[in-house]
Amino acid sequence: MTLFDTTLRDGEQTPGVSFTVDQKVEIARQLAATGIGTIEAGFPASSAEEREAVQAVARAVDSARICGLARMRRDDVDACTACGVGMIHVFVPTSDIQREYTIKKSRQEVLDATAEVVAYAREQVPHVLFSAMDATRTDRDYLAEVCRAAVDAGATTVNIPDTVGVMTPTAMKELIAWAVKEVKAPIDVHCHNDFGLAVANTLAAVEAGAAQVQVTVNGMGERAGNADLAQTAMALEAIYGIETGVVSNRLLETSRLVSRYAGISIPPGQPVVGENAFSHESGIHAHGIIEHPDTFEPGIMTPEMVGHRRRLKLGKHAGRHAVRQMLADVHMQPDDAALDQILAKMKAIASRGRRITDADLYAIAEEVMGMAGVTPAVGLRDIAVFTGTHSMPTASVSLIVDGAEKVGCSTGNGPVDAAMKAILRCLDEPVHLKEFAVESISGGTDAIGHVTITVEDRAGHIFDASASSDDIVIASVDAMINAINLLQRVQGAKTGE
Ligand code: KIV
Ligand code: ZN
Closest ligand 1 atom to the C-alpha of 159? Predict the structure, then answer.
């Protein structure tokens, strides 16, 4: 089973998304490192920039096959060939609705063009993928005819796209079983997610004998997107026991890289890669997880397998076991009465609808256990930020770290980015900023900004903390310092022990 990733082509068709050439190259390298067999890098005929990007990807990546998209036209094929790709993906609408209203060609004209252009493409490259666009709404006899024409002309793989996502798993299984028998080439599928069934339909196609599946990172793509790479690959590997070649522990970083470059955040509940995919809040679940992780996780897919982390989360439903465990992680051992008080205070805050960070829990525990007032390991002495229309935002910070002054300077994409980088430069141990979220608590230009930050150290300790201020840079700096102090605490550096 091979994975064909089209993040850089169909994924980039997500409304509002456009990757730079450098971003495409970096994403393609990451996809190759994630074990993707074929990467569709773009649609070369669409623009000079796209040709530059596809060519750059083809030059930069040699461990995966690089593919370019072409309409059923010789000049589109030439544009792909000029980019140095190893596979050309030629497509043509085959359903009556698309054929009549988009390309305005007869069935016979489509058949003739397919025979001619597929043969032409095959003269240029060893691998030609033929797509009968809107196959799932195409008359079955005509679909057989056009696929036969493509294979006779030299297509090495035939794609049956569910272009507008109207299939069900049962219907997909029947169609692909038919195609596997009827078409004398390996069958590929490309499922859109209009009804949220793209992954299910892709898996049904595999059950029916599809040899290749098309996916995108984070399920990006036209309208509701395509079948998601991480979900499809993990379902195939973990549930079906089918090897896909995926390097699963790279899935999370791949998802985050694409999310960053696309400017689309990953929903917390997204399977496999979402922040909550391996997080547990309710007392019953967290207790089970502490006893044995398989109680409330699939077991056949662990967080480590996909490069993720298991986390116990605080909230209205949190229980004694989770809170005791989280405090023990930072060397705090409240007795039963203190634990009751900590839980009660925490739940009172949570029931007002506020997210509770790790820093909130430790602040409550310190207060209840009479440890408040202990000087934290890291404190802010001063910060200055400079920003303007003709200069890079620059920040310089002065921190007190374990009693000694440390000064750090950095430029950044904005004042907050510069300030975060300047803080991290003051630390001896590297700290990775995993997440940054900002919300406005009140309206207007004097609004209070509430910043929540998640950090991770080299040992894999993860903590979140938040802070509020009418100055967004100060809120970010305070949240960052609060989070760093938790890392210092777990590293046993100072306070609270
Ligand atoms: O959705 C679709 O049919 C496509 C084709 C180009 C394969 O993206
Ligand atoms: Zn598509």
Answer: 7
